[in-house]
Design a protein that fits this description.
Layout lengths: L2 H8 L2 H21 L5 E3 L2 E3 L1 H12 L1 H10 L5 H24 L5 H22 L9 H17 L2 H7 L3 H37 L3 H4 L16
Antiparallel strand pairs: 1-2
Helix pairs in contact: 2-3, 2-4, 2-5, 5-6, 5-7, 6-9, 7-9
Amino acid sequence: MRKEDLKNQIFTVPNFLTFLRFLSVPFFMWCTLDPSTYLQVGPYRLPVVGLIIMAAAAATDLFDGFIARRFNQGSDLGIMLDPFADKLMHVMAILSLTIIGYIHWAFIVAIALKELTMIVGGFFMANHSRLIQANMMGKVASFTLSIAVFMSYFHPFFADKAFYADWIVIGIGVVLTYAAFFNYLGQALRIIKAIFASKRNGTTVAHELGESEEEQPDQSSEQK
C-alpha cells in the first residue's frame, strides 16, 4: 500500500472510530484492575467504570460500518483494523477480568490461542489482498462472548447467586468461537496454499483459486 493511499485511508470517520476502540483498551483495563475505581453495587464493589468505558468504545462499532457504506469511506486499512480492534478489546477485557479472578484462566488461554492464530493468518492474507469475510457462526460467537464479558464484570453476584452463569455463557462462547474458527481455517488454508502456489508458479492467487477477476470480492465495498 502506497504512503499516499495509507494517509488518505487513515483520516476517515470510520477509521477514527476504530482508533478510539484501540485507545480505550488501557483505560478500561486500568479501571478494571484498580480497585480504587470500583463502584458499590448493592453488597458488591465492582469494576463498573471499566465496563462503562469498554461498552462505550464497543458501541462505536455499530456506527463505523454504517458510515463507511453510507458515505463511501470504506478502505482496505479499515477492513484489516476493525476486526483486530474488536478482538483486542475482547482479549484484553477477558485478561483483565482473569487477573482479578472474575474469569477462570483456562478461558483466556483458549481464546488467546485462537485469536493469535487468526490475527497472524489475517495479516498474512491481507498482505496478499485476500480476506475472509465473517460468517454467521463467527458473529454469533462474538456476540456470545460480548454478553459473557458483560456478565463477568458482575462475577461476584453470579458466583454467589446464579451458579456461575457468567462462566457458563463464556464457556458456550468459547465453543462457538472454535466452531467458527475451524470454518475459517478451511477457507484460510485454501487461500494460503494458493498464495504459495502463485509464487512458485508465477501466477496470480485468483488463478490458483480458479477465480476470474470478476469473481474476486470488491473489498472496498465491504465494511471499512
